[in-house]
Specification:
single chain; globular; alpha/beta; Rossmann fold
Length: 242
């Protein structure tokens, strides 16, 4: 049976709070050992897939899944790095309005690449730069759902561009350069890959992340992954309860 929602997350830790609240009714393994948990929250069914981190793992996992199932919606989620310039704090939430795999294109003397001379997805020229827009009505509706779930005086919720990287930003200086080039809200490692595969199969996808750290801050004593993970558990439940 095709579920109402497929939840994608890179690691078990990131989705652990949701699984504690909603452990699911069954589990199955793919041929490559990926775990798919199936369950129900309120009146909606879900599958949950741990993809592994990075663009290659995310693309592989979602392709394997979509070859046999067609969920009504895919939710890419997980923790992410916040860009300080956004005014967000650790534990705040963001919904992606677009994803950008910034390593796509023809290299230039600056961070932003020129477009490739061919589409990565037929008739979608933005994929020449690794850019994937999300359905804006769905993005705005998701913001409304989250605004009803989280207290406005404690949690900031916003929408904006995300960037997908394969090399984690390791300095504040580089983070500043990335923000100047792309004006992103968050940095993560899977979103653009999932967006690409979902587009290939014509399945709607959205991405919601909770900030665990500031981009470029490598001192993990200044991170709060436990808070970010707790927020994600509530995010996934809120989407399913809607």
């Amino acid at each position: 049976m095709n579920p109402d929602l497929l939840i994608l997350c890179a690691t078990p830790f990131e989705i652990a709070h949701f699984i504690r609240l909603h452990p699911g009714d069954s589990k199955r393994l793919t041929r490559t050992g990926l775990i798919i948990i199936s369950g129900k929250v309120h009146h909606k069914t879900y599958d949950l897939m741990i993809t592994g981190p990075g663009v290659f793992n995310a693309a592989h996992a979602l392709t394997v899944y979509l070859e046999t199932s067609s969920p009504a919606l895919v939710l890419q989620t997980g923790i992410g790095g916040i860009f300080r310039q956004t005014g967000l704090n650790i534990g705040d939430l963001a919904v992606a309005s677009q994803e950008h795999y910034i390593h796509t294109g023809i290299q230039t003397d600056c961070l932003e690449n020129n477009p490739l001379p061919f589409d990565l997805i037929k008739t979608d020229p933005l994929t020449r730069k690794g850019i994937y827009f999300f359905e804006q009505d769905r993005v705005d509706h998701t913001l409304e759902i989250l605004s009803r779930t989280f207290p406005a005086n404690k949690i900031k919720i916003t929408k904006g561009a995300f960037i997908t990287v394969s090399a984690i930003t390791s300095s504040i200086e580089q983070a500043d350069r990335l923000y100047l080039a792309f004006s992103p809200v968050m940095e993560a490692m899977e979103g653009a890959a999932s967006a690409h595969i979902a587009r290939c199969y014509d399945i709607p996808l959205m991405e919601i992340r909770s900030g665990s750290n500031f981009v470029g801050e490598r001192d993990k004593s200044k991170w709060d992954m436990d808070l970010a993970v707790k927020q994600l558990g509530q995010v996934c439940a809120a989407i399913l309860f809607e």
